[in-house]
Amino acid sequence: MALAALLVAALTAACGGQSGAPDKAAKAKGADAGAAGALANHAEKMKAARQARIVAAKKWGLVKPPLMAPAAPKAKPEITTREGFEVEDQENLPPVFTTVPTEDKVVFLTIDDGAEKDPEFLKMMQELKIPYTAFLSDYLVRDNYPYFKQMQAAGVTLNNHTLNHRYMPALSYEKQRQEICGQQDTIQKEFGKRPTLFRPPYGNYNEDTLRAAKSCGIKAVPLWNEEAFPNRMDWREWDRDLHAGDIILTHFRGREDWKGTMPDMIRHVMKTVTDKGYAVARLEDYL
Q1: C-alpha atoms less than 13 angstroms from C-alpha of 39 in its C-beta half-sphere
Q2: Strands 133-136 and 106-113, how do they pair?
Q3: Using only C-alpha atoms, what is the Rg of the chain?
Q4: Nearest to 228 by CA among 263, 265, 189, 259
Q5: pLDDT at site 234
Q6: At what angle do helices 119-128 and 262-275 cross, to 10 degrees?
Q7: Mean pLDDT lowest among 31-45, 110-124, 168-182, 228-242
Q8: 131-176 per-position pLDDT tens digit
């Protein structure tokens, strides 16, 4: 009897072991199939996005479709003030920089003030999926907040360029603080989010500017390495070239100020960027 019981137990264990192995194999196979399916789905989405960019580029008159930026870095680079751009007590103030330290072949497009409100520009940027950051001055923006709300809804971050675009070093600390904090309050009220980036008008600032900006909640002060127009690029560096992480400045302008429109400017800057092998990335992803 005892022998028979042991035989039954052994057979049962053996059967259980044999049935468990196929289950594990099936689960592993299913997981592999799921991973392969996810990769294939991602590849299809990337292919569709590239195709959409080609179509949009043709529609908007770009010679080449924009290159796609890499995924945002998991670890954001450390931002420090550019040499020669420091003020007294700089280590305790928001960093001032013209380039983001990165090995990614990307540049960043930033647009200042808010004077021109071209609906074709919004449509173009959305269809081409070109990221950019706006620095707004309220005296130019307040006549059409909905235009910039539409921009924000498309994923654009709205940042601080002061209330009235004054030359900051000529103002007292309190006046500078009114210009910066006042615009912080206005952007929060109208657009629901308080900025963390500030660009001083004309790129001019002093220690009071940075102290005031910090007191208003500003974390960083991006300037620029290049400026884009519809018919040219202006360069800060002696080599007159783009570099990984460069910040490009342009403005909300039209034919009244330029020899062209905002879409003309985008066509020119994107030809320069793409010809040199760069993609435009989202500045906030690196800060």
Answers
A1: 6
A2: parallel
A3: 27
A4: 265
A5: 97
A6: 30
A7: 31-45
A8: 999 999 999 999 999 999 999 999 999 999 999 999 999 999 999 9
CB-CB contact of 179 with 171 (8 Å) = yes
DSSP letter for each residue of 7-73: HHHHHHHHHHHHHHHHHHHHHHHHHHHHHHHHHHHHHHHHHHHHHHHHHHHHHTT-SSPPBPPPPPP
- Across the chain, mean pLDDT equals 91
How large is the average pLDDT for residues 69-97?
97
Element (H, E) at 235: strand 233-235
First to last CA, the chain: 77
CB within 8 Å of 108: residues ≥ 6 apart: 100, 133, 222, 245, 246, 247, 248, 280, 281, 282, 283, 286
Assign 3-class secondary structure to 62-75.
CCCCCECCCCCCCC
